[in-house]
Specification:
Layout lengths: L3 E5 L4 H12 L3 E8 L7 H11 L4 E6 L23 H6 L9 H16 L3 E3 L15 H14 L1 H5 L5 E3 L7 H10 L24 H13 L12
Parallel strand pairs: 1-2, 1-4, 2-3, 4-5
């Protein structure tokens, strides 16, 4: 029987690459996505395509209404998504697109599902190099969460193996991530990264996520397959 892994999937570039890496390691994929009231809920269509294309055994979408909490440009329509920022501006402070405690919430759902399925490996596509300064994408956060996971669960206390939070992209640049995905045969045209897409799913081309994605493809010398709202 093949070993299983839970892969957190937004349908974006990073999480899709991580899923391909987990598959390459021989894991049976249990894909986990969230509808959390995000303005870019179009990403869930991409997550479904990715799960199907990479042969996930299961694709679970959990509803978590973070819109009720708000506090982020991704969940509050009254907060604008920043556009056309420089790399220096992106790294100057934690941006308004940060969703309070999002990765902690998502990992907790993954942890619960892992216990039920008897899974030890949880993959998440966090990155501490080309990212927008989110505190829950740092190595020290992941290490702390893994320690907590093994203290707070029956699987961690009594199980034959410990819970492992796998972050294979955490020290890679966006270009390195793209090159790795291309090596594994990832079709990035099915992925979605934009924070503020059109109703049809066209990327805005100017939000932080779009800018980092474009920069990554350019530095990797790989054609960018993204459908943008305007010429870039």
């Amino acid at each position: 029987m093949s070993k299983k892994a839970i892969v957190l999937s937004s349908g974006g570039l990073d999480s899709t690459t991580v899923m391909a890496m987990a598959k390459c390691e021989g894991f049976e994929i249990c894909s986990l996505s969230f509808f959390y009231g995000q303005r870019h809920a179009y990403e869930l269509k991409a997550a479904e395509k990715v799960a199907d294309a990479l042969g996930a055994a299961r694709h679970l979408v959990v509803n978590v209404d973070l819109k009720e909490i708000g506090g982020s440009a991704l969940t509050d329509a009254h907060i604008s998504v920043p556009k056309s920022r420089s790399g220096q501006e992106m790294s100057a402070e934690i941006p308004v697109t940060y969703v309070p405690a999002r990765n902690t919430i998502f990992l907790s759902y993954a942890l619960a599902w892992a216990e039920v399925l008897g899974v030890s490996d949880i993959f998440i596509g966090v990155n501490a190099i080309d990212y927008s300064g989110y505190p829950d994408c740092r190595p020290e956060y992941v290490e702390a969460y893994e320690r907590m996971a093994n203290l707070a669960t029956k699987a961690g206390v009594e199980g034959p193996t410990k819970i492992k939070i796998r972050t294979p992209l955490i020290h890679l640049s966006k270009a390195q991530i793209i090159r790795k995905g291309i090596e594994l045969g990832v079709d990035y045209s099915m992925t979605h990264s934009c924070y503020d897409p059109s109703p049809e799913g066209l990327a805005c081309s100017q939000c932080d996520s779009c800018l980092l994605r474009k920069k990554g493809f350019a530095e990797a010398n790989v054609p960018d397959p993204t459908r943008y709202l305007r010429e870039v």
